[in-house]
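User: Here's a chain of 233 residues. Predict its fold as tokens.
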Amino acid sequence: MIPLRDNILNYRKPIVIYWLIGINIALFLWELKLDVSGELGNVVTSWGVIPSLFGAAVRDTLSGNPAAGLVVVVRSTSLLVGMFLHSSFSQIVGNLIFLWVFGKSVESLLGHGKFLVFYLASGILTGLVQILVEPSLTVPLIGANGAIASILGAYILLFPKARIDTIIPILIIFITVEIPASFYLFWWFVQQLFYGIGSLNIPGGVNHGGIGYWAHSAGIIIGVALIRLLHRR
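Assistant: Prediction complete.
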């Protein structure tokens, strides 16, 4: 099922979403180039969220090693950069479709500045949850899944009666139907199962399918909490 658009009237152009989509596509094209040259694995390892490395650096800092503090700062940047990298065609396409369909109404309501804060904070906080949930994970975690989950959580809270025009492929026939927005809380989880389709060649793997990966779902709760904070009306 592919969501197309909602029935919410927006009063602002989704300028931030335009930029986010553009940046994500540009970086994915860069990843494809690195994949061909065999350099992608090093980049993903450097900029993806690796819970075990982050946790080790924090422990060393707390034990009195000041040099480890610099490592914590460097690894912290992965919480931001990692959400703009993607491991497969299906992951980036799925995330950007959800960003467009559900994000533009949230941006219209919050305004451009608050929406950007909401998006970045959601991705960073979800990354921290992943580190706490599975601190021994040694493979990098990348993608905007957490931020997209937060947008979905905020959207359902703000527009519980919204209807989503959706394409449902049946063999070679495509039909369009209206589906309640709340259904996509379920479909978001189902969609995660297909994010390995069209994977890039990343040695050592990426986006472990265990607890750390599914901690992305914490983004739904984070989105609800942040939207209550940023939009009090």
